[in-house]
Design goal:
globular; alpha+beta; FAD/NAD(P)-binding domain
């Protein structure tokens, strides 16, 4: 280790990706993780990159899905998180899902084995003045003391929102004479399984009774958090139901693309889907069933779902508060704190939402910090790439509308600049209306990967690109 390493605070996905990229770029790194000496309200282990909520990295289709495009970009930039996710994947239809513990153990092993990375366990409650190059990647569960120290530096309010956890149950307690395995529209995903989900069908009467129970069930209270908003991408089930009784049926409980082999002529009114949570297939999580129902109520209500009458839960759902910065006001385009440029931020605390987005910002922060350490200039990727679009959103995207409206955001094609010309058919004619959307997405994805390659090739140093080609 040199006398001036890059200090990275937080051993989540963003912090681990930042450490890997910085070390692969030639820098030395000290990665600080407070667990297990100090725990959080959501973590259960002392592993690095622990997955707190879902085990899904979402859609893996690079041509027509923005998060799949981000997957592809990260793979091409040598992402540790994507390499470990690919090695630990479990069946999930068109999504990339992972064995939860296997993934975290893989990341922990690779970080521990890197000669340029030292892991230090213990809470960092303030940032020493002699640390010249720092990445804060403490995520949504930043400790109160460090959050207060950050607030003192930014001069801005630190914002918060609620995030929720879905229940996990034991596979051998699911009644497969009622439930069945199938992916929507039989779509195979990265793991190649066209029957990646367990489906539990509901009649209209069963659905109505279930919604009544969810709405009436006792909820956990969070005094002092009443004004904290929910992130729309992770709404608790009961909040969805409060917005309209049919809302869950048009969201995670939609019955489309599925046929019940036990009753092939009867269309379910609603379907509860379970997704494999570990490589052994012994644990499955309830898709879209984040909740703040009290634990006893969860067990009672969820066992009314057909097929789950004798379900045994390995973990019940919960709710925790996330913290993020008003990034457009306080961060520059290189993710540095304007008031103290020696500090960079990465991950969910910057105002991105999702595992992949958090790791992606960590990837860039690590490269930028390593460039600073080497005295090199490194600009972010262009906004025509998914990674560049994310950075543009969190550092400047809301200034014109007023940064007060800044909220956490998943990657989506709306963050990328439009095409210079609409896609055309082979004869140069405008495509029919029904084909334009998919063609536009694919054209934007092809442009993004080409522009990312040009950006990566222009970097004189850094980690080699991924050997995985599209």
């Amino acid at each position: 280790m040199t006398d001036n390493p890059i200090h990275i605070i937080g051993g989540g996905l963003a912090g681990c990706e930042a450490a890997w990229q910085a070390a692969a770029s030639g820098a030395t790194v000290v990665l600080h993780e407070m667990r297990p000496l100090r725990g959080t309200e959501a973590h259960q282990t002392d592993l690095l990159a622990e997955l707190v909520c879902s085990n899904s990295f979402r859609a893996d289709d690079w041509e027509y899905n923005a998060v799949g495009l981000l997957h592809a970009e990260m793979r091409r930039l040598g992402s540790l998180i994507m390499a470990c996710a690919d090695a630990c994947q479990t069946p999930a239809g068109g999504a990339l899902a992972v064995d939860r513990d296997g993934f975290s153990k893989a990341v922990t092993r690779r970080i521990a084995a890197h000669p340029a990375i030292r892991v230090e366990r213990g809470e960092v409650s303030s940032i020493p003045s002699h640390w010249a190059n720092v990445i804060v990647a403490t995520g949504p569960l930043t400790s109160p003391d460090l959050a207060a120290a950050i607030l003192g530096l930014t001069g801005e309010d630190v914002l918060s929102f609620f995030d929720a956890i879905a229940p996990i149950l034991h596979a051998d307690t699911i009644d497969m004479t009622v439930a069945w395995k199938q992916s929507r529209y039989d779509k195979a995903g990265p793991a190649g399984d066209e029957a990646a989900y367990i489906n539990c069908p509901m009649t209209r009467e069963e659905y109505d009774a279930f919604i009544d129970a969810v709405l009436a069930g006792p909820k956990s209270e969070f005094k002092g958090w009443e004004d904290v908003p929910y992130f729309d991408g992770c709404l608790p089930l009961e909040v969805m139901a409060e917005r309209g009784r049919e809302t869950p049926r048009h969201g995670p409980m939609k019955p489309v693309g599925l046929t019940n082999p036990h009753q092939p002529t009867i269309k379910p009114y609603a379907v509860v889907q379970l997704r494999q949570d570990n490589a052994l297939g012994t644990l499955w999580n309830m898709v879209g069933f984040q909740t703040k129902l009290k634990h006893a109520a969860q067990t009672e209500i969820f066992r009314t779902i057909p097929g789950l009458g004798k379900a045994v839960f390995a973990r019940l759902g919960g709710l925790h508060r996330n913290t993020f910065l008003n990034s457009p006001r306080v961060l520059d385009e290189r993710l540095r704190l304007r008031a103290a440029p020696r500090l960079r931020f990465a991950g969910q605390i910057t105002g991105v939402e999702g595992y992949v987005e958090s790791a992606a910002i960590g990837l860039l922060a690590g490269r930028l910090a390593a460039a600073d350490a080497a005295g090199r200039d490194c600009a972010p990727p262009p906004p025509t790439t998914a990674l560049g679009a994310l950075v543009a959103h969190i550092t400047a995207g809301h200034l014109s509308a007023g940064a007060r409206s800044f909220q956490p955001m998943n990657i989506n094609y709306g963050l990328l600049p439009p095409l210079e010309a609409p896609p055309q058919d082979a004869d140069g004619r405008r495509l029919p209306r029904g084909e334009r959307g998919r063609a536009r997405k694919r054209a934007m994805s092809v442009r993004a990967l080409a522009d990312l390659k040009d950006w990566a090739d222009a970097q004189t140093e850094g980690p080699p690109g991924s050997v995985r080609a599209l």
